[in-house]
């Protein structure tokens, strides 16, 4: 904040320091920080000393007003972030649902694969038995053809 505008009868820094000491003394006489006025001035004397020393124009009212403005901005930002968080949470739930569906599908595929492997193992066993039986029958056919040949040529 800028210092108050120049006034023709503006007090000097020494005059302001002296006036501030007189005000402090008055507040101390009526009870200091324990009085209603003292409570109202709490921290104001420090700001006044800083203003005098540094040519500032700061006050508790300005600080409070700035804090209220900042608080409003932070609350609005918080609302916006909460909305974004809600959207992200909804998206997360959707992804979780999709993941659950993928896991269910994977489990079904796994069961199908296990059943298929079991079926293929059974079929392989049946195939080996059929090949063995076929081999026996081929051998029997050859033996019978040879016997028929022997009977026909004898």
Question: Could you name the key traits of this structure?
Answer:
single chain; 4 helices; mainly alpha; 154 residues; rod-shaped
Descriptive report:
The protein is mainly α and 154 residues long. It has a domain of 46 residues. Helices cover 82% and strands 0% of the residues. It is built from four helices and no strands.
Summarize the SSE layout with pairings.
Blueprint: H1 13-29, H2 36-40, H3 44-54, H4 60-153
| Mean pLDDT over all positions | 93
Q: Work out the number of β strands.
A: 0
Taking the alpha carbons of the first and last residues, their distance comes to: 134 Å
Uncertain runs? none
Order of helices and strands: HHHH
Mind describing the biggest β-sheet?
Answer: none
As a percent range, the share of strand residues is under 5%
Provide the gyration radius in Å.
Answer: 50 Å
The rough form would be described as rod-shaped
Structural class estimated from helices and strands: mainly alpha
Number of helices: 4
Helix content: over 70%
In short:
With 154 residues, this protein is mainly alpha-helical. The chain is 82% helix and 0% strand.
């Amino acid at each position: 904040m800028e210092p108050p505008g120049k006034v023709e009868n503006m007090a000097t820094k020494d005059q302001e320091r002296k006036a501030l000491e007189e005000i402090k003394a008055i507040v101390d006489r009526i009870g200091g920080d324990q009085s209603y006025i003292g409570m109202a001035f709490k921290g104001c004397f420090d700001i006044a000393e800083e203003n005098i020393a540094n040519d500032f124009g700061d006050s508790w009212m300005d600080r409070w007003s700035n804090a209220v403005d900042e608080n409003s901005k932070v609350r609005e930002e918080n609302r916006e972030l909460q909305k974004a968080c809600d959207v992200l949470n909804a998206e997360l739930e959707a992804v979780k649902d999709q993941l659950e569906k993928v896991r269910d599908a994977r489990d079904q595929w796994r069961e199908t694969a296990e059943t298929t492997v079991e079926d293929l193992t059974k079929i392989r066993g049946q195939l080996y038995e059929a090949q063995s039986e076929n081999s026996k029958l081929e051998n029997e056919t050859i033996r019978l053809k040879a016997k028929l040949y022997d009977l026909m040529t004898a």
